[in-house]
Design brief:
Elements (H helix, E strand, L loop, with lengths): L1 H13 L3 H22 L8 H12 L4 H14 L6 E8 L5 E8 L2 H14 L12 E9 L4 H10 L3 E5 L4 E6 L4 H10 L6 E8 L3 E2 L2 H15 L4 E6 L1 E2 L8
Parallel strand pairs: 7-9
Antiparallel strand pairs: 1-2, 2-8, 3-5, 3-6, 4-5
């Protein structure tokens, strides 16, 4: 699971660019508006899709004003109501398995754009890959002490990933336990940096530096697509330097 953290670091560095930052915010706004529609309201306490969308937006520091306006627009005009979730499966460069989650108002357009990126980078969208991933809750805390690790286990963690270099502890949970673990950490004074649902590979693909850079370029090209929300892969990028 360590590779997930490295990809998160790469994304954070890339997001420092204003254009990339704006694209990330737009993706979260779309997800929030869709969640309001799908979940039947603007109250996250009774709308789990919205609660998940808000937690993901918070982890990427989406401004509160943007979030409030997105909910208001979705409630007032049904904006965001035309988007539907789609999942694409395929294999990228170096044979990595990939899952792509998107929200789209035009399936043909989005499928064509995703397929183009796969083809351009030596991948293909033939064959199922979803079976290679498991759904998990993920809580990231800027504290790697034994105290918070033990607390995470007590609260129901099923796996821990300690990144001493970044000072981050990633706690993986069953999806249904995500908020119980997150709230339990908060009650003990440990404020999570991120609380969200994710998918983790059952096995990872080891990559050399040159191969990893090809994979990173491919993943970034997918992420640049407006309709793409989340990307999961079996690439192990943990030992790869984050380049600018």
């Amino acid at each position: 699971m360590a590779g997930h953290n490295k990809w998160s670091q790469i994304k954070r560095k890339k997001a420092a660019n204003d254009k990339a930052r704006g694209r990330i915010i737009s993706k979260h706004i779309r997800a929030i508006q869709t969640a309001v529609r799908e979940g039947g309201g603007g109250d996250p306490s009774s709308n789990l899709p919205l609660k998940n969308a808000l937690a993901a937006a918070k982890s990427d520091d989406v401004p509160a004003d943007n979030i409030d306006r997105a909910i208001e627009r979705a409630l007032g005009s049904g904006e965001g109501g035309n988007f539907e979730p789609v999942l694409y499966e395929g294999y990228g460069p170096e044979g990595i398995a990939v899952l792509v989650e998107a929200l789209t108002d035009n399936r043909n357009r989005t499928a064509g754009e995703v397929r183009h990126v796969f083809s351009k980078h030596g991948g293909n969208m033939s064959g199922s890959t979803a079976w290679q991933f498991e759904s998990r809750g993920m809580v990231i805390v800027a504290d790697t002490s034994e105290t918070v690790q033990e607390l995470g286990i007590e609260l129901g963690a099923i796996d821990l990933d300690v990144d001493e270099e970044e000072g981050l502890l990633t706690i993986y949970t069953e999806p249904t336990m995500l908020y119980e673990v997150s709230d339990g950490l908060q009650s003990k004074g440990f404020e999570p940096q991120a609380t969200q649902l994710t998918k983790v590979p059952s096995t990872e693909t080891a990559l050399g530096e040159e191969e990893a850079q090809k994979v990173i370029t491919f993943l970034e090209a997918l992420e640049d697509l407006d309709d793409v929300q989340n990307i999961y892969s079996t690439a192990n990028l943990d030992e790869v330097a984050v380049s600018g």
